[in-house]
Amino acid sequence: MPLALARFALVGVINTAIGFAAILLGLRLGLGDYAANATGYGLGLGVSYVLNRSWTFRAANVPSVAEFGRFAAAFGLAYGANLGVLGLGRAAGLAGQPLLHLAGLGIYSVLFFVLSRTIVFRKEG
Predict the structure, then answer these.
(1) Which member of 4, 85, 99, 113 has the lowest number of beta carbons within 10 Å of its beta carbon?
(2) Is the Cβ–Cβ distance between 57 and 121 less than 8 Å?
(3) How big is the chain by its Cα radius of gyration, in Å?
(4) Do 14 and 83 contact (CB within 8 A), yes or no?
(5) Are 124 and 87 found together in one domain?
(6) pLDDT digit of tens for each residue in the chain (125 aa)?
(7) Beta strand extents in the chain (DSSP E only)
(8) Torsion 57-58-64-68 (CA) sign
(9) Sign of the alpha-carbon dihedral angle for 110, 118, 76, 56
(10) Same domain, 8 and 25
(11) Are the C-beta atoms of 43 and 19 separated by less than 8 Å?
């Protein structure tokens, strides 16, 4: 498991770099903020799926739309938990505090890893 966790973290760094580069390129090409952001995040999510599937969790089954749907849902749940931490922290008077964002990132990362390992790319049998 520690190796899978390290791979998961590295995939996160790679996908963030690719997604951010796509945002910058989109802005340079004249896309608005929202279109550039959606392009970057969409590309990043796709890269994350492919790398986590093949490298982090070494899924042996054939990729499917259902599997990608589970991956997207896991992302949504993990991101929602991140936003929940931010909302609670802001309500507690911690708005704008970097440690609040670090806590949200931690919840997001742990939850996304666990969901990916147990639901998205679970080993059959």
Answers:
(1) 99
(2) yes
(3) 16
(4) no
(5) yes
(6) 789 999 999 999 999 999 999 999 999 999 999 999 999 999 999 999 999 999 999 999 999 999 999 999 999 999 999 999 999 999 999 998 989 989 999 999 999 999 999 999 987 75
(7) none
(8) positive
(9) positive
(10) yes
(11) yes
